[in-house]
Amino acid sequence: MINRTMPRGPYKPGKIRQKSQQTMLEAAIQAFSQYGYSGTSMQSIADIAGVPKANVHYYFKNKLGVYTAVLGNILDMWDTVLNDITIADDPATVLCRYIDAKIDFSRTHPQESRVFAKEMLSGAPHLQEFLQAKYTTWLDNRLSIFRHWIKVGKMDDVEPTHLMFMIWGSTQHYADFAPQVTQSLGTDTLQQEHFDAAAKTVKQVILRGCGLTPPE
Amino acid sequence: MINRTMPRGPYKPGKIRQKSQQTMLEAAIQAFSQYGYSGTSMQSIADIAGVPKANVHYYFKNKLGVYTAVLGNILDMWDTVLNDITIADDPATVLCRYIDAKIDFSRTHPQESRVFAKEMLSGAPHLQEFLQAKYTTWLDNRLSIFRHWIKVGKMDDVEPTHLMFMIWGSTQHYADFAPQVTQSLGTDTLQQEHFDAAAKTVKQVILRGCGLTPPE
DNA sequence: TTAAAAATTGACCAGATAGACAAGATTTGT
DNA sequence: ACAAATCTTGTCTATCTGGTCAATTTTTAA
């Protein structure tokens, strides 16, 4: 997406283009996640990718094009989990699976999480479309399921929207506020065990807080 | 703090200097909270403050000086709450007070919250001293009180560090992810009632999740 | 092999930015 | 009132940045 040129004619496009773009996108997300949009220069992206700056301009229309491509990749990861829940499911199981998945995302994709967070902190100017379209329906569907569970007594009357915010906030924290977390836990780098302990506590509090008991 | 010149001699310093600096700091936090450090120009700060750019340079050593002054002001707000808790206190009361205070901070100081969050997201290069000194002892003191409450059975065995992260993450979310929150709640701007509902849900889940019952 | 398409790259440009500076205006203590 | 200190502000500069372009090299399909 966001290619400037779309190769045509007697030529099989793709391989070089795809690989180069991928390299540059990975360089870009690294830069954006640390320095933000304004703090990242095309030159620095090129340096990280190990190519001349003009090469980045060849594959992307401009700096905003690189950024929106990065953002698009991140948004594509959005609904991987909690996508197939139904009214028949067990709330405790669903919440556990979601919390585990979110914590795991903070562990395996901290850079993506930070780019997303920085965009939000800047007022989400490039997420309006996403928020109004894809996200809203995604959320509404899940909220209605939670509301049903509450109505039939499967869980306590906890306002579902704010419950979701609690889970998001609690789990994102481990990626976005990593310096504070590492300092608090007295470690240099966050290890698997730290994320496991985090998931355990979040699940314990959320489930109990909703009047649920851990599955199995 | 971070003044370039410290007036001396037969002259009563302060009034003009203090007022001008205050105006510029308010302009600066507004700019930094939205556009980040790199995205904010000295010119934009001057424009917001309504003064020529050279005036900003007169009162602050350089751009980093403005930023660290802003950051320092924010850090000074840190321990206003949860500062005087003791072992004798009631856990439920303390947690409620803290959650209310944090949510209220997100409501009344969203810009400060966002500047702090952006600094964290960038790896907190200017917070190392704060994190290692003031913050660590602050946290350790509170954690030991939580651990005592757990030991004597006043609350469930919930890992206190991660419990604190849950509260921080959940409450910060309303300032830092405001675009997502407003979209989810179907409103244009967050009102008092939304923050009240947020505080209610967070308190409900956290307290119940720790095996506590709401006070009085 | 070869010609067209695609990819690479160095050089260049216009605008923005942080910061310096000096001249002038204002405030202060006496 | 007046001199010293502080404050204000227009102007200037060196540097950085996003973006363009044309020349060269590499890859591809026939």
Mind explaining what this structure looks like?
2 copies of one chain form a homodimer. Chain A has 216 residues and is mostly helical. Chain A folds into 2 domains: 15-73, Arc Repressor Mutant, subunit A (Orthogonal Bundle); 77-209, Tetracycline Repressor, domain 2, CATH 1.10.357. Helix content of chain A is 70%, strand content 0%. Chain A has helices at 15-39, 42-49, 53-59, 63-76, 91-108, 110-121, 128-151, 160-176, 178-185, 192-209. In chain A, 38% of the residues are buried. Mean pLDDT of chain A is 92; it is low at 1-12. The interface between A and B is large, with 59 and 59 residues. Chain A binds a DNA duplex (30 and 30 nucleotides) through helix 1 and helix 3.
> Which structural class should the secondary elements of chain A be placed in?
mainly alpha
CATH class bucket of the largest domain in chain A: Mainly Alpha
Number of domains of chain A: 2
Q: What quaternary form is this?
A: homodimer
Q: Work out the number of β strands of chain A.
A: 0
How helical, in percent, are the residues of chain A?
A: 55-70%
Poorly predicted ranges of chain A: 1-12
CATH architecture of the largest domain in chain A: Orthogonal Bundle
